[in-house]
Amino acid sequence: MEQLLRQIKLLSEKEPKTLEQMALKLSEEVGETSQAVLSYLKANGSEYKQLGINDVKEECVDVILVSLALFYKVAENENENELQELIIRKMDKWQSKM
User: Is the dihedral angle over the CA atoms 70, 74, 80, 82 positive or is it negative?
Assistant: First the structure.
């Protein structure tokens, strides 16, 4: 996983989109994930797209990639452990609300 994160970080450094453009791209990817879920569940008006569980998974990965690229764009060269520390803190918060 560390190698994947390093690759994502390197790719994000080459990303020409501005912070605003990346945030909009993230919104777009979240919308595509929602569409895939609705189609997979055959929600009224969405079943015509005929998307399956693999489409949902791919859209989730797109959200993850854009989110990480956006994170690395704002984090720049800060603490290498920052991402892990934030994820752990947020997971703890999530767990405490269950």
Answer: negative
Single-letter code of the amino acid located at 94: W
| Contacting residues for 40 by C-beta, under 8 A, at least 6 apart | 51, 52, 53, 55, 56
Cα-based torsion angle of the residue sequence 28, 56, 35, 84 in order, rounded to the nearest 10 degrees: -40
**pTM of the full predicted structure?**
0.88
Nearest residue to 5 via CA among 59, 83, 60, 58: 83
pLDDT in tens, 9-59: 889 989 999 999 999 999 999 999 999 999 999 999 988 899 999 999 999
